[in-house]
Design a protein that fits this description.
Layout lengths: L1 E5 L6 H9 L16 E6 L3 H10 L3 E3 L2 E6 L14 H9 L3 E7 L15 H31 L5 H16 L11 H8 L9 E6 L12 H12 L3 E5 L1 H8 L3 H11 L5 H12 L2 E7 L3 E8 L4 H8 L1 H5 L1 E8 H7 L2 H6 L4 E3 L9 E7 L2
Parallel strand pairs: 1-4, 1-5, 3-9, 5-6, 6-7
Antiparallel strand pairs: 2-4, 8-9, 10-11, 10-12
Length: 363
Amino acid sequence: MKLGIVGLPNVGKSTLFNSITKAGAECANYPFCTIEPNIGMVSVPDERLEKLASMYNPQKVTPAVIEFVDIAGLVKGASQGEGLGNKFLSHIREVDAICEVVRCFEDANVVHVDGSVNPVRDIETINLELIFADIETVNKRLEKAKKNLKADKKFQEEIDVLEKVKENLESGISIRSVDFKEEEKMLIKDMFLLTSKPILYIANVDENDLENPDNNIFVKQVKEYANNEHSEVIPLCIKIEEELSGLEKEDKKEMLEALGIEESGLDKVIKKSYDLLGLMSFLTAGEPEVRAWTIKKGTKAPEAAGKIHSDIQRGFIRAEVVSYDDLIREGSMLSAKEKGLVRSEGKEYIMQDGDIVLFKFNV
């Protein structure tokens, strides 16, 4: 699963990417520094792994990971090929969700592509380009459906949905903001529209606004905009996050305390991005390894077993499951079993975040 970091040039995209991935993507104060997308695999922070590791003393601890993609900055006219528009649009089509960085600070030394700081205008610049690209997609699909209607009346249903989508897009409304019926959602999903992708806004603030970001007028504006389209906002100071990302664990903890914050903004971004992609983790624990396994929310036990090995899914018998909270409270698997907290679940069991599982199988 990929999450694309997007934004106008010089808003802090590549610095954020560097901080998250420590991948060393080039970063400079001029537009289009990023041309080809940088890609990095990122560990998902999970305090549960540390506690399980102290319980089992494993040889190895393996966290869940997600993939971040740093995509070239976008400018007005991208949908007509301005700037690196065609590259931007093709790269963003390949990601599953969007992390949009928005500048919410004043600094005369950092140029803004439009000459002034206005986060809502910046968001709308990107959204409009995505909307224009989606209108083109919908028009092509609509033309094809109308031709097919002559031979088969069932295409009328598709035409009705496409007309509804087009009407919203032409009104400047992103598809993620619109409530559709379940059967309509299936057809829309099949079109892979850019404005239907889930989005998380990163409000990049000045260090002085870090403790109380809601006092920043720009952050308030971004939150109001995001609320209208059912999206979320994480305020952070990317400059500070870059410093934090280079520190050892104890030094990082000291700096966070000095800043008056409990958790780094990057950890919040990674966790929220994981959630935005509709992902969660089940856990396996033992002396060889404590590990978090990534699955989609709603995954059943046999499919989850297949994440470990296809043979386990093929020969699935049952899953022995205990919740993380129950295991930690009891202090050991033996104690959890004695209390009847370890359950035997079958093929229809829907996995829950934090399930600690031992799969039984026979091949």
